Amino acid sequence: MSPESLIDIFREALSVIVLIVSAVVLPGLAIGLVVAVFQAATSINEQTLSFLPRLLVTLFALMFLGHWLVQTLMEFFIEMVNRIPQVIG
Q1: 15: pLDDT confidence band, cut at 50, 70 and 90?
Q2: Residue 9's closest CA among 68, 88, 87?
Q3: Which of 44, 50, 74, 80 could form an S-S bond across to 35 if both were Cys, CB 3.0 to 4.6 Å?
Q4: Per-residue pLDDT averaged across 4-16, rounded?
Q5: What pLDDT does 50 receive?
Q6: Closest Cα partner for 56 from 79, 30, 19?
Q7: Is-contact 23 65, C-beta < 8 A?
Q8: Domain ranges across the chain
C-alpha cells in the first residue's frame, strides 16, 4: 500500500464527514443566527430562547436528511470494503 492511497482514503473520509456534519449543523446555525438577531433587536436576553428552535431544526434536518445521510455513509463503507484487496495487496 502506497502512502498516496492512504492519503486518498483519509481525504475521502474527511470529505464525507464534513459533508454529513455540515448538513446537520448548518440549518441549526442559521436558525441560531436568526434568533440572535431577533433577540438583539428586541433586547430579550433569555438564554433558553435560542435553544428550542435550534434543537427542533436539527431534529428536522436529521429527520428529512436521514435517508441521504445513511446512503452516503453506506456508499462510502461499500467503497472502502471494495478497496480492501488494493490496500492489502
Answers
A1: very high
A2: 87
A3: 50
A4: 91
A5: 82
A6: 30
A7: yes
A8: 3-88
